[in-house]
What we know:
Layout: H1 4-25, H2 28-77, H3 83-114, E1 117-123, E2 126-132, H4 138-149, E3 157-163
Parallel strand pairs: 2-3
Antiparallel strand pairs: 1-2
Helix pairs in contact: 2-3
Amino acid sequence: xxxxxxxxxxxxxxxxxxxxxxxxxxxxxxxxxxxxxxxxxxxxxxxxxxxxxxxxxxxxxxxxxxxxxxxxxxxxxxxxxxxxxxxxxxxxxxxxxxxxxxxxxxxxxxxxxxxxxxxxxxxxxxxxxxxxxxxxxxxxxxxxxxxxxxxxxxxxxxxxxxxxx
Length: 165
């Protein structure tokens, strides 16, 4: 009598044997097409990973801002909050919205002028810029810093970092 375990073993073994023979007898042009499709999909995956770094930073920044805005909105709607505290909360909300708009406009400007995907985070007088680029060029970083500084009357502390593609 054949045991179930032996029956499963022979079934799987014969399936592997048939697939192996099938693979060996496949025409080469079919294998080349399969490899080409695999190469194209891995290239797309690499491109998505590069963009994911910027997206992840933007999402993180957005979550922080949203949390701060929620706290400020609670202060505005709380009846126990004084008028001065409500005014401060309103001013901070206004500032956060201005900063968010400035960051987006600077990112678009850098994309337009230098064809770079960038992430910009403004924190008071500090402007952090991360750009996706093959080249880590000092001259390009200097141009980016000057472009950003043109948007402000006061002197800003601007940092530019490059991440490889």
